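Teaching soon. Got one?

===
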Amino acid sequence: MSHSQVRFAILGFGHHAIRRLLPAFRRAEHSTLTGLWRRDQAAAAKNAAEHNIPHNFSTREELCASPDVDVVFITSPDAMHKDDLLLAAAHGKAVLCEKPLAMNAAEAAAMAAAAKKAGILYGSGQNFRYNHTLDWMREQIAAGRIGHPQLAHAQYCYPAQQAPRRWIADPTLACGGPIADVGVHCIDALRYVLGEEVTSITTLAYKDQPTDLVEATATLQMEMTNNILANVTASARAPYRTLVEVVGSEGALTAESGLTVDRPVDVVLRRAGEVIETKTLNNDDGYVRMLDSFSRAFRAQETYRASGEDGVLNMRALDAAYKSWHSGAREKVS
């Protein structure tokens, strides 16, 4: 292993690591996976052997203290992120943390403060900021190709009943249902392509059963800076689908499957109903680009696009979204 590669260890190794992160590490130029820890030690040993991961750490402490680890990649359940980050920071390790960053904005702010105090690089795993589709949409909007943005919509649907991550329906472990799990990606995607912030949110959401502890489907009506009205829609009970759309005074940009990494995506620019341009882009290197960007940031060669501090803004939006659902009122994003 060359020392040109930044060495990551995954803390809280699970389904997401196997499905998304391992293939990305295999393709990465500047990032290598050197170790893992998971609560189930038998499963961890099997994972390490199967995927040729050099270190299977027996404790979180051992992982964070290891001289063979540069970056701790936290993929544990949401409720554990804060403790995991504090442990890594105490050992002076850089941290890349999965979204949602924490259970609420106060926790996320405490994490960002701890990282700053420890002087470590700290990023959020908002991988879609490294999708070519969002990059292209952001460029077109910035260049004024749809005029002044007025309306925006991001949607993320997936069938959670079939998801292997059982903890996502447990509010002691998960920040919430699809609002927190995938709605946070939608909020972040709109903030990223528009370069604007969320100022208030009104939420409607349904549970499957009154006794359920998290929502199953939701819609968030969002006020954004610069007089943009946005909608985030999320379902944990529908077939997989993503959509990102922005309507401006001169035209509209639509990306069916805009957040999708598994197949090519057509981003369509229309004016007065006519297709002006269709750009076909493939996001299959989104996770690779995210890892390598973080590694280059670790080497002080570039700025990582989704800082832990920026992630606090997404958490403030989630707090307002859940507050609105329970209050039935429009809630300001603090």
Observations:
- The mean pLDDT is 96.
- The CA atoms of residues 84 and 177 lie 22 Å apart.
- The radius of gyration is 20 Å.
- The first strand starts at residue 6 and ends at 11.
